[in-house]
Amino acid sequence: MNKKEVLISVKNISKIYELGEIKVKALDSVSLDIYKGDFLIIVGRNGSGKSTLLHQLGLLDKPNFGKIFLQGNEVINMKEKERTKLRLNFLGYIFQEYALIAELSALENVMLPAMMLTSYKSCKHKAKTLLKKVGLEKKSDNLSSQLSGGEQQKVAIARSLINDPMVIFADEPTANLDTVAAKEVLAIFKALNKEGHTIVMVTHEKEEEAYANRIIKLADGKII
Ligand code: ADP
Ligand code: MG
Description:
By secondary structure, this protein is an alpha/beta fold. The protein has helices at 50-57, 80-90, 106-111, 120-133, 149-161, 179-194; strands at residues 6-19, 22-35, 39-43, 65-70, 73-74, 91-94, 167-171, 198-202, 214-219, 222-223. A hairpin with a 2-residue loop joins β1 and β2 (22-35). The longest helix has 16 residues, at 179-194. The protein binds adenosine-5'-diphosphate and magnesium ion.
């Protein structure tokens, strides 16, 4: 059997937030490998460190201790410019609150992360293809503020795909959606994973665990 390729490897990372005198250990010596093709789901109670872990994996933040490797390269001590490059080229991020720019159209939101990397024309073409993929080609000229929550999250998924990321991170992507929209969003993730995309998703919903090939549970910043 082929050994699975490790895309991201996390070794004993700890994250401590300091708020004045108060220190919160949000992650406590977490180790984890993310394999190519994974649909990894992270569960745990509120405040257990799920978002913090996703931020470290997605290079949005740095842990206080431990090491993180992206395809074998240590990324914590890299210059911020290098980390930004890696984020832009290799990682896609989807937030609970969509995080779209209200004043831009659906199409422009999807194009945005590719604008620094490629020509306007090819961004636009690719963004159109991706909006079609998530079933929103008819809404491409709507401002994102004119879209429903489910539609906004689909735009956010299309945006996360624009630079062909190696891993897609989603932090409670269905938490603000009604049941129908949540199912549609999950169906998109499932299809993407089937196509070979690696997905790491945080969820609160027990029934969403069925989508995972691996589940990890956090409690008090530790994997249990
Ligand atoms: P989850 O996503 O599982 O709800 P978080 O990763 O957001 O958990 O938070 C883990 C712990 O770290 C919680 O105790 C939370 O209050 C704390 N925390 C998260 N972000 C910050 C921050 N920016 N500053 C201070 N404490 C934080
Ligand atoms: Mg969270």
